[in-house]
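User: I want to check something. If I give you two sequences, will you return the structure for each one separately, not as a complex?

Assistant: Yes, each is folded on its own. Here is the first sequence with its structure:
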Amino acid sequence: MKKLEYVVKSFWCAFGAFLYIAGVAWFMFHIQVIFGQTGKPDNFLAPLFALLLFVVSACITGFLVLGKPIQLYLEGLKKEAFLFLSATIAWLVLFLFVIVVLLLFR
């Protein structure tokens, strides 16, 4: 596979991670509307939910960012694995930069 193909495929992995993170952020932003604001004090389920969401999110984003590079590395394509991982991280940094710019100029 050509270098450009790795960069393009890494974009889709990074974009998938971005969409997942955006979905979780949207959910967390609207959690009171979704579940309703109750006058009950917090119980064991709230921190349990938060920690499980954290672990599941780490697994999903870890798979999206590290899955293909690990596969390439195990196939003996070490340079390609490093390129893919570097490109994926670069895309995520670009997305982060765009978000920062949007926050600064809104």
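And separately, the second sequence with its own structure:
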Amino acid sequence: MSFQYFSRSLGLLVFIVSFTGVAAGAGGEAFTDPAKAGPDFGLQGEYKGSVETPDGVKVYGAQVIALGDGKFKVFGLEGGLPGDGWSRGDGLVTVEAKSADGKIAAEMERANLVIGNGKVSVLVNDQELGTLKKVERKGDTLGKKPPKGAVVLFDGTSAENFDDGKLVEGKWLGATNCASKKKLGDHQLHIEFRTPFMPKSKGQGRGNSGVYMQSRYELQVLDSFGLEGKNNECGGIYSISEPIVNMCLPPLAWQTYDIDFTAARYDTDGKKTKNGRATIKHNGFVIHDDLELTHGTPGRHGEGPEPDSLFLQNHGNPVVFRNIWIVEK
């Protein structure tokens, strides 16, 4: 085979595997328990490793996303994973595949890929040129305790700080169109969320919710693992801006948003004089850097001078939240 061709192809290749779920959703089942998620659940996820090429050993990333009934879509990334060696605009190639006997076999024109047992093997004429091992990334603020002076909105013991708040499984806050009783102006927010595993669902029907800053600006929550990263996908601010990089982790992984929010300013007549702004980290990576919030987003309240609530949107999917606290500025 042509090593030059192989290097180009693999450099664009990241694997994403989608699989099947359990609670009924718009496109199928929605799993919230990994033990009940089915045999494909263990194949999904992120992989990273090295492959021998004519130019030496190079690092590659892979993501695996499940589509239900043993079907998978495989994308490839040269240099590593999003936020870890790969950036928006770098090469990307898609390979579709199916699982059998607990493994995924994907045939390329010049090489074969075998995914299983926690790794991706890259084979040419049955010779292994490299291995990508499965990784489970976590945001560097996952589980972070509130600092001194912070206001805790949810610590897993009670939903009393939210109007229409409901406990799920006795310890998580459900996405139930609940709003914090505390009204917020300028603040820093830490919030952790988990999307369900919904392999047969697509697009906006797959783990959909939203974190509304000041009830006015929606930061999307969605199972966008392996997608392009648009403004209506995870990390996007609906109708305003797509994230710098799609840092969405696989479904059922706990993820973090850390938000530094500055409210819009108004004069004494109620006329807006300055737009709001936000710097946002998703799983520890900056996805919006001092972004100007040019207008409110649909779904909750319009813009205004008064403080307003943190709002967590219900979109019919079993999304849950935990460890929510703010520091007022």
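Because they were folded independently, the notes below concern the second chain alone. Residues 177 and 233 are 19 Å apart (CA to CA). The chain has two domains: 3-135, 151-328.
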